[in-house]
Amino acid sequence: MDFKIGDTVAVLDDVIKGKVVEIHQNKIVIESSDGFTFDFLPKELVVIRESQFELSKYSDINNESLMEKIAESSAKKNAPKFKSNLKPDDIPAMEVDLHIHQLTDSTRGLDNYDMLNLQIETAKHKLEFAIRNRIPKIVFIHGVGAGVLKTELDFLFKNYHVDFYAASYKKYGLGATEVYIYQNPKN
């Protein structure tokens, strides 16, 4: 495989990714996102042209169950809508579990950065879904851990017209954030 300086590469038998910084006869030097340099044989590396997240968007295009879901959702859009007299506080919150094992079958080949991006992109899509569908509350279950995901979620929520706070300790413990979405009245 031909490598060029600046290519993003991954190591085949390890979870190291980086950019090619030097090319020698039988050695490729890469720099990881942490700033460390590593030497590898060309046969130990592969060039990354698409991110794992971008590829996963197209993995089930011809999937039969996906086609059924699309047909169901279009049928639901055409179904009559019923008005509810419930107040927003009476409606149960939509729950989204962001634990990585709930989002993907395998984390093989994903580094911490890829997993965090998958979790944040999922949260973003679910939040935008709730906004589009006028769902007033959504609970993101993120767990406790080192707090990296919670910090990134807080940063994400600041970009939307929402309030967010710790969800019910009794129900979720310390590892969940509840988001209240401000709704504009229908015109």
UniProtKB/TrEMBL annotation:
<dbReference type="InterPro" id="IPR036063">
    <property type="entry name" value="Smr_dom_sf"/>
</dbReference>
<protein>
    <recommendedName>
        <fullName>Smr domain-containing protein</fullName>
    </recommendedName>
</protein>
